[in-house]
Amino acid sequence: MRALTLGPAGTYSHRATRAVADEVEFTESVASIVAGVADGAYDRGVVPIENSIEGSVTESLDALADHEVAVVEEIVTPIRHALLAQSPSFDVVASHAQALAQCRGYLDAEHPDVQLEAVASTARGVERAREDDTVAAIGHPDNAGDDLRVLAEDIQDRTSNATRFVVLAPVSERSEAGGKSSFVVYPNRNYPGLLLELLEPFADRDINLSRVESRPSGERLGDYVFHIDVEAGLYEDRTQDALADIEALAEHGWVRVLGSYDTAHVLY
Ligand SMILES: O=C(O)C(=O)C[C@]1(C(=O)O)C=C[C@@H](O)C=C1
């Protein structure tokens, strides 16, 4: 199984991907992971979707709205960040924007004067620290190797810090089996009560929603694409009936059915 995820090697995405594929390749853009699976170049892609402190990874949500792929599994993994550098004196902290945000409290308290630099991934930040002794990185402590020191561990602002990743597959592998299902809905309409109408088909059938997220459609201001996750499988009649209602409501737009899947909790 060949999988594509966010690199270079050593990212949290890499750690999650190891749970589903033996051959892992890297790119530094989430959109190209989704495109790589949609184009058939990779069997699997793994992208971060949501963090318990910082919320949605919007680049991933937007890429899922733009490409035809299936979600075949969800991986939840704890995120425990370390501060890595060549020495305790540094001027810059480089990491993924999500990781910098997850450690905002620690950085404000312990290193209020450093400059924060957002890079493509935590592992890219580690490479910056490896090349430049004025740069520290935030990432998984195992990235230290022989040339970086772990200056502090568990620096995330909450110990419960966890990120949810989705495992993507070509659309031909979309499944109806699984305890959760995901949809992306673009009604291409804007009127009072539209969101209520989109959610009622699930409420009426006693289907619990685990997430609703609105993202700008990019078409015009105030126009949205809705990402809806539910705790029910597409194999269930109630989910199919709710989906039929949603498709009718989105007759002027579109509905993308990402599929049904189960959740794996991965510790590393
Ligand atoms: O940079 C990484 O290591 C990633 O895998 C990306 C990412 C993210 O986008 O949220 C994944 C998990 C952590 O929340 C921090 C960063």
From TrEMBL:
Pathway: Amino-acid biosynthesis. Its EC number is 4.2.1.51. Residues 183-260 form the ACT domain. One of its GO terms (molecular function) is prephenate dehydratase activity. CDD domains: ACT_CM-PDT, PBP2_PDT_1. It comes from the Archaea. Keywords: Amino-acid biosynthesis, Aromatic amino acid biosynthesis, Lyase, Phenylalanine biosynthesis. Residues 2-170 form the Prephenate dehydratase domain. GO terms for biological process: L-phenylalanine biosynthetic process. InterPro entries: ACT-like_dom_sf, ACT_dom, Preph_deHydtase, Preph_deHydtase_CS. Pfam families: ACT, PDT. This is Prephenate dehydratase. The gene is pheA.
